[in-house]
Amino acid sequence: MSVLSNSTHFNISNTTSKFLEISVSADQNSSFRIRHKSQHIYETPRNNVDHVSYTSWFVHSVTNVMHGSSMQYVKINLPVNETVECEISCKSALVLETSIKDKKSRDHNRGEMIIPPETQGCELHVIYNQSKGLAYTSNGNVAIGLNNLDSQTVIVASTIKTMEGHVIDIEDNSPAMCKTHIV
User: Which residue among 78, 121, 134, 138 sits deepest, i.e. has the most Cβ atoms within 10 Å of its Cβ?
Assistant: First the structure.
């Protein structure tokens, strides 16, 4: 029994004060298709498949036009306060891996969100929010009080909402983090 491909319209918003890099892939080394008009999305297509017949070439060409090219992964460079739109067709879970790109920060940890197939197939809004964690002194100890502050943990978490504003609970959703210098 085959699984039908879910076509999902994504609005991906960066509401943080940090530049984000989001890598999108399908789990289990599956491919997916993407359509977009954004200058912030960079595609890495799957290796081309040799077509045995004219019919297989024709079907492949029509699918590329209607649903986009078959991708291994795409990278989204998401500037501060920007939203990108894309449509992704996928038969398996989508993996969104998030990195905070800030030259003034250190100790980066990637975030990851896995969107299962049962959540796909509609219009979704992925929102990246920022919060702050512990502050540290110049020698790396946790700061107590407001004296001698040197750096602070920045946490970038993702939330998925339907276009009606209902939050969808994603079980596999871990935030990206880094320590940034306090000016």
Answer: 78
Q: Find where tokens 């079907």 sit.
A: 59
List pLDDT tens digits, range 128-170.
Answer: 999 998 888 888 888 887 778 888 899 999 999 998 999 999 9
SS (H, E, C) 105-142: EEEEECEEEEECHHHCCCEEEEEEEEEEEEEEECCCCE
pLDDT at 58 over 60: no
Give residues with Cβ within 8 angstroms of 2, minimum separation 6: 91
Those residues whose C-beta lies under 8 Å from the C-beta of residue 104, and which sit 6 or more positions away, are 180, 181
Helices (H), the chain: 54-67
Cα–Cα distance for residue pair 37/43, rounded to 1 Å? 12
